[in-house]
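Appendix C: a fully annotated inverse folding record. The material below is reproduced so that readers can follow the format used throughout the book. The structure is listed first as tokens, followed by the designed sequence.
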């Protein structure tokens, strides 16, 4: 594993949690292993590990982008990750308010429903 991959895996675990990463690692096979390696190094090693902005800020950016693009499963994953990034429910709402203006009210409305459901699941757990 390269230095950037190790850095990425450390960040990925810090943000998403060991349980999620362990499940993803256990589920990968020869088909998607190259993809998993790429996202660990690129997204988590090169981007999330930069240190130029906080995990909280990066979390809010990621949530806004995922909501604006309609990536629902990834959106729920990153809403759950707020437990580790320091982004609050108010932060998530602010990010989604921006989505409403810049990406459209229907996208934001749908994302808010996903966030509400995800936060409720987090409370119940």
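Designed amino acids, in order:
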């Amino acid at each position: 594993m390269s230095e950037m991959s190790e850095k990425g895996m450390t960040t990925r675990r810090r943000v998403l949690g060991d349980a999620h990463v362990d499940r993803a690692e256990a589920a990968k096979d020869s088909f998607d292993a190259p993809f998993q390696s790429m996202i660990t190094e690129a997204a988590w090693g090169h981007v999330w590990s930069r240190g130029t902005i906080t995990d909280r800020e990066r979390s809010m950016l990621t949530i806004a982008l995922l909501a604006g693009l309609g990536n629902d499963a990834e959106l729920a994953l990153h809403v759950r990750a707020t437990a580790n990034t320091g982004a609050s429910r108010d932060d998530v709402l602010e990010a989604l308010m921006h989505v409403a203006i810049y990406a459209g009210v229907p996208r934001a409305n749908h994302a808010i429903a996903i966030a509400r459901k995800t936060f409720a699941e987090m409370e119940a757990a």
